[in-house]
Design a protein that fits this description.
This protein has a domain of 55 residues. 77% of the residues lie in helices and 0% in strands. It has 5 helices and no strands. Helix 1 crosses helix 2, helix 2 runs antiparallel to helix 3 and helix 3 packs antiparallel against helix 4. The chain is globular.
Length: 84
């Protein structure tokens, strides 16, 4: 699954704004927990693969994509529960 998403996003993303290496941070941010995206971003930043600007952009993109996914199950009401 990770490889498929990585290939799809690498072909669709604008490479001038975000390098391909930062897409793994974006995918981990919305596919797993927030902390896994932070850990991957820290490792890539520490290794010198990404700059600070690219890391922040990748984390923001991942968090923006993850927000509706994480909120929607808890925000959806259950009508049968209210009227029973």
């Amino acid at each position: 699954m990770f490889d498929v998403l990585n290939m799809a996003l690498s072909q669709a993303a604008v490479l001038n704004l975000m390098p391909v290496e930062s897409l793994s941070v974006v995918i981990l941010s919305f596919a797993a927990e927030f902390t896994s995206g932070f850990a991957a971003a820290g490792a890539l930043l520490n290794a010198g693969v990404l700059t600070v600007k690219q890391t922040v952009l990748a984390l923001l993109t991942g968090n923006i994509l993850a927000f509706p996914i994480s909120v929607s199950p808890s925000a959806a009401p259950v009508p049968g529960h209210f009227f029973s």
